[in-house]
Amino acid sequence: MSDRVYKVVLGAVAAIFAALLIAFVVAIATQGVPAFSKLGFSFLWSSNWDPTHNHFGILAFLVGTLETTAIAVILTVPIGLGTALALAYLAPRRLRAPLGTAVELLAAVPSIVYGLWGLLVVAPFFRSQIEPGLSSVFGWTGLFGGANQGVGLLLAGVILFIMVLPTMVAISRDVLAAVPSDQVEGAMALGATRWQLLRKVVVPGARVGVLGAFTLATGRALGETVAVALVIGNSAHLATSLKSNAGTIPSLIVSSFGEATGTELNVLFTAGLVLLIMGIAVNALARVFVRTVKRSGAASVAVA
Amino acid sequence: MTTLSFDSSADPILSRRAEIQRIASASVKRRKVYSKVGIGFCLVCLVIACIPLLAIIGYTIAKGLPAWTTTFFTQPTKPEGIPGGGLYNAIIGSLIIDAIAIAVTVPFGILGGLFLAESDGRIAGAVRFAADILTGVPSITIGIFGYIIWVKNVGSYSGYAGAFAIGIIMVPVIMRAAETAIRGVPTTLSEAGLSLGARKLTIARRVILPAALPGLITGVLLAVARGAGETAPLLFTIFGNQFIQTNPAKPMEALPLAIYNYSSQPYNDLIQIAWGGALLLMAVILVLNVGSRLISARLRREQR
Amino acid sequence: MTDRSSTNNITQTLGLTTEEVFVAHEPGTSKVMRLEDVSVAFNGRPAVRGVTFDAYEKEVTALIGPSGSGKTTLLRALNRMHDTQRSAKVTGRIMLGDTDVNDRSTDPTLLRSRVGMVFQRPNPFPTMSIYENSVAGLRFNGVRKKSLLDEAAESSLVAAALWDSVRDRLKVSASTLSGGEQQRLCIARALAVEPEVLLMDEPTSALDPIATKRIEELIGELKDRVTIIIVTHNMQQAMRVSDRCAFLLMAEDRSGELIEFAATSKLFSEPDDPRTLDYVNGRFG
Fold first, then answer.
1. Nearest CA in chain C to A193
2. How crowded is the C-beta side of A279, counted as CA atoms within 13 Å?
3. End-to-end CA distance of chain B, in Å?
4. Contact call for residues C81 and C116 (beta carbons, < 8 A)
5. Which of B97, C17, C170, C192 has a Cα at 20 to 30 A from A265?
6. Residue A289, pLDDT score
């Protein structure tokens, strides 16, 4: 095959791939738009989801998506950062690689296995131990009303947290470890304790990358479907407490798609479009942060 | 000869020194306690991060292993209430769908990787951008895409549609891994080929790809691990089939899908089968993951 | 055995005037830091062994010698920088006043507020402003009083000859400074804690000649305030800035040992040891 043909073939592959992406966005957009012409925009902020009576408000699911993601992120940032610091600086050196691998392997477990485990192992544990415990200690906050069911918003958030933790840890660990040792030594030589140097020099030095890690983790949490669908209890109502059943956009689509027709199907496609937009936006933001770190070489200092 | 005694109360430096030392000594205990607490927190986070992996693997093995009977591997899924079911149709279905996906995406991804590695123009930038987006997007949207493009147009659910959706998930992973692996091949090798008058395709086939092989294999293994574990794309494309179906043009069953369907059933034997399926899926994917790590570790060692 | 003529040879070879060789100064008489038989080993293999000398108050003591002779390793033992490396073992006594630096009961954090360090490549904290950099050491040591911080910041920046050029932009990031300015900021940062000893590890080797000259001048001005121990591979620099020199050389077992410790003027003109003479004559290095 001559060189020119070779180049054409490679170019064709690239073009097909780019076309695939365009087709992807166009397909979902075109399927997602009709609902607006049928229903206007109001269904986006109505929480009344009752397809049999022609109510298609998806607000409850939007809120549920945000709530589960928020729980996951609130847990992931401190614990992920702490784990990353431990892996980069604090754990015994010989354990760092194996423990790091163990955390990364968490990302490899298929989400259906998370869902199964979450539903059949963790939910009963939540119902019998965690939820009663949390309700008695934190009941005054008003966040823990309702029955102890195990499944629900809190469980979904926690399972999501476990699923996105490896992302947060892996990226954070890399950027934290990339802070130049010059600065670490400089802080040490001034009389800083280990914690002071981590808090005041290492973490600030890696802050852009850590932000990127956190954003990527958020993106993953937003889009997770199967594990959440199994443990969130699948309710169409706005959650009133952390123990309530709830729904997310992905869980809505998954549970209703099989039998949906007509307007309901249109709305589900629109929900998918909304999810796509959120996912792309968050991911693009994350890549901006992470790319900035890689280009600047972890905030190194120029010497004349 | 100058005397070297100074009146410390008059010399600001000495008095400042004394005060700084006083403050430092008085605060050192507190600072060290804070340091210990902070470091302890990070180590606790590390422990927390490692527990879920052990828990998931442990429970899945404990509950799934008993399900691995001959029936499990040889009998298709039976409807609820009928004993003697297995996951044979799901296993076969997954194998077929994943094989089709691999057969298409591996050459496509490697060619794409060759394209990206050899050019840095705007098209390459666009392709990389597309790959980044496709890896970050929620997998349910890819399932929806597969539905729109394949199922709607062709008229029925099919194994091909599933392979298409899984393929979209796999291609960006292979492409980026291929690009990295190919860029890692020293340019001296390809230059040597060029100086001998070889065509680009020949150089690619005979020099670059063999040299990049470990990185390519790593990428493919990771891509398969990712694609094979996904459930959401399958939910919208293959529909499921309780009979053994080997024709990819028809609706098929697949492992993640079967597990998903069984997981919310109240029948104990079906739950048992679900655990068995989860163990099988998780085992395969973890093996693929660990395998790809070992290969890339050996690759790194050899490169030194 | 050396006479005036060979001294002239040395001065001519090195391009210095006789006045510059014999630095006139007022030597301190009290010993700020005393090293007794100090050795540093990594995984059992010694990197530098059996070093004994004293650093005098208000003087600059230089550690000189060819690369590999263990100068930096020795310097870093003086403020316990080897603590983080499990494979490192420091033996011997390092007396700072009444305290044995090397004793396990001595707290390294407190020690480092008394013995500061400036590194080869300037390392200001990039996420902090100039002001924050200069008071970083104080903050690490628990100082919170704003008046004390401001006072120390100004004093140390003045001492580092940086105050005039940065006083109007103290809140600006430290990365905006040039290399030489950054190194002076690092010196100010170390000085702000008012240490008794300042360790300098080849502080000018990453800088251009003009910046180097300014820092050498600075060292001369600073030694009244703080005792300086400097590692340098540049013989001319050692002659210009130091009052006493410790000459280290790598022995056959690849560990560094102290060959000679004397006043700079003597070491460079009439050293006791022939190996010293060879080194200062440029026969190797």
1. C109
2. 27
3. 62
4. no
5. B97
6. 84
pTM above 0.80, yes or no: yes
Banded pLDDT at C183 (limits 50, 70, 90): very high
In chain A, which residues have their Cβ closer than 8 Å to the Cβ of B275? 116, 120
Hey, are the CB atoms on A1 and B256 less than 8 Å from each other?
no
Per-residue pLDDT at C172 exceeds 60: yes
- Which three-class secondary structure state does DSSP give residue C158? helix
Q: Which residue has the tokens 């011997």?
A: C92
Inter-chain residue contact C225 with B13, CB threshold 8 Å? yes
Contact across the interface for A191 and C113, Cβ inside 8 Å? yes
Model ipTM? 0.87
Interchain contact, A190 vs C116, CB within 8 Å: yes
pLDDT digits (tens, 9 = 90+) for C258-275: 999 999 999 988 888 888
Q: Does C194 touch chain B (CB under 8 A)?
A: yes
Residue B106 binned pLDDT confidence (cut-offs 50, 70, 90): very high
Interface size B-C, in CB pairs within 8 Å, comes to 50
**Looking at CA atoms only, how far is residue C165 from chain A in angstroms?**
17
- Alpha carbon distance C269, A69 (integer Å): 74
Identify the pLDDT of residue C15: 56
Tokens 């690369």 sit on residue = C67
Q: Give the separation between CA A115 and CA B30, rounded to whole angstroms.
A: 45
